[in-house]
Amino acid sequence: MTTTTTDRDQANRDNSDLLNLAGLFSEAELELQAAVRNFVDERIRPNIAEWYENAHFPVEIVREMGDLGLLGMHLHGYGCPGRSAVEYGIAALELEAGDSGLRTFVSVQGSLAMSAIHKFGSEEQKNRYLPGMAKGEIIGCFGLTEPTAGSDPASMATTATRGDDGTWTLNGAKRWIGLASIADVAVIWAASDDGIRGFLVPTDTAGFTATPIEQKLSMRASIQCDITLDEVVLPADAILPEVRGLKGPFSCLNEARYGIMWGAMGAARDSYEVALKYAQERLQFDKPLAGYQISQEKLVNMVLEIQKGILVAVQTGRLKDAGNLDPVQISVGKLNNCREAIAICREARTMLGGNGITLEYSPLRHANNLESVRTYEGTDEVHTLILGRHITGEQAFR
Ligand code: TGC
User: Fold this and answer.
1) Which whole number is the average pLDDT over 315-333?
2) SS3 readout for 62-127
3) Could you list the residue range(s) of the whole structural domain that residue 85 is in?
4) 351 inside domain
5) Is 70 exceeded by the pLDDT of residue 3?
6) Which of 79, 88, 91, 318 fits 74 for a cystine, CB–CB 3.0-4.6 Å?
């Protein structure tokens, strides 16, 4: 496993940008891409196999990600980096070329927890949490999914009850919550007599417990937890004041789903690059694998889908930066890019033969990670039905 870029790597990269997608990006965007790619090469690639094998989330690099401006990247004010949606997307792509678990950290922290506070918090809440979260000094998590409410968060069973003294009491359970066991603050969505509301729960509050889910076959360099909320009493000002109803969490999911469409292409690109290089170097029946027609067909099919997926992401990002993005368009990218990325990673694995099933090569690790990525933030099925509803006018969820 190498972490340095050779002339061949660079030539492969240049030759694989068939449509000159690099030409779609500004100098500032390309500079950011190079900085994040460098971070991934230096801090993630040399260690990821070990982290993955040992199910270790490298909390030690969280502050470095803050220093690089990756946390709450596209949020403005309150100490946040204030970068564009496209820049955030590029960073997500490069991070996920390292590993989905690390990109997921950035998504949960920035797109979900920080976004919820930024969009719906009081001034006091924003000032209290966002600057520290942007630096990586405070870690957040986002509790929406429940053991019995995944694709249908409207059926959530977690409750928030208001007391006569204005305090809130939360009871219930959340599942698959990224970072919860290392988080300082949890954004918890709960059903109240005033509809679904969001609450900021310091994780040292009595009655809050987060337990990492073990024996995962996917996203191993990342933490997902079960949360229990057992008579968790919060002050009146723990509520996010600016939103009621599911549009609150769904607006945050829009942000995370947007980043995922870019990130998935990073996992795909890394798998493709590994397969291409392997095919050029590996001799079989006296010539490089790359010289066989079936190998070339596999590589061409991969690179076409990567180029198309990045085009989808760039167009979506430009719409987002212009303030014209419809959530339906996010479903296009999330569905398409996750679906294509997992197929590319699996195809790349086939080119590595038996060597492809070890952690020495990234494609199967990426493919396993993408099982989670295509599932969270709306499964393939949910996004298909969101698009189906849009084009037919008929909802088919229920
Ligand atoms: P529906 O009736 O369509 O909408 C309810 C209200 O929400 C509004 N809305 C949106 N607002 C902003 N952006 C969107 N994308 C929105 N989609 C809907 C809608 O306008 C309405 O507002 P209002 O004011 O009229 O009440 O709701 P529905 O229940 O029929 O929706 C169906 C469906 C399937 C589309 C929705 O439930 C859905 O998207 N399900 C998937 C849920 C999902 O993605 N869950 C993953 C969560 S990830 C997680 O919890 C863990 S975080 C990751 C980690 O920690 O690692």
Assistant:
1) 98
2) HHHHHHCCCCCCCCCCCCCCCCCHHHHHHHHHHHHHHCHHHHHHHHHHHHHHHHHHHHHCCHHHHH
3) 7-135
4) yes
5) no
6) 88
Question: 119 CB less than 6 Å from ligand 1?
Answer: no
Query: Which of the residues 53, 360, 377, 381 is marked catalytic?
Result: 377
Is residue 2 included in any domain, yes or no? no
Nearest CA to ligand 1 atom 2: 246
Nearest CA to ligand 1 atom 16: 250
Number of other CB atoms surrounding residue 283 within 10 Å: 9
Which tens digit of pLDDT belongs to each residue from 56-99?
A: 999 999 999 999 999 999 999 999 999 999 999 999 999 999 99
pLDDT band of residue 1 (cuts 50, 70, 90) is very low
Distance in Å, CA 269 to ligand 1 centroid: 30
Closest protein CA for atom 46 of ligand 1: 377
CA distance 278 to 288: 9
- Whether 377 is a known active-site residue: answer yes
- Total-model pTM: 0.97
Q: What is the pLDDT of residues 165-190, one digit of tens each?
A: 999 999 999 999 999 999 999 999 99
pLDDT of residue 5: 80
Residue 53 has pLDDT above 70, yes or no: yes
The token duo for 282 is: 């590996």
Q: CA-to-CA distance for 137 and 144, rounded, in angstroms?
A: 23
Task: State pLDDT tens for residues 152-169.
Answer: 999 999 999 999 999 999
What six digits make up the tokens of 138? 């405070």
Query: Which pairs from 319-325 meet CB under 8 Å and 24+ separation?
Result: 320/85, 320/86, 320/258, 321/84, 321/85, 321/86, 325/258
From the CB of 388, is ligand 1 less than 6 Å away?
Answer: no
pLDDT at 308: 98
Count structural domains, the chain: 3
Single-letter amino acid, residue 197: R
Q: Which two tokens stand for residue 225?
A: 């937890």
The residue out of 217, 238, 259 marking a domain boundary is: 238
Mean pLDDT computed over 199-211: 98
Residues 129, 144 within the same domain: no
Query: Shortest CA distance to 365 belongs to which of 343, 349, 377?
Result: 349
CATH of the domain at 317: 1.20.140.10
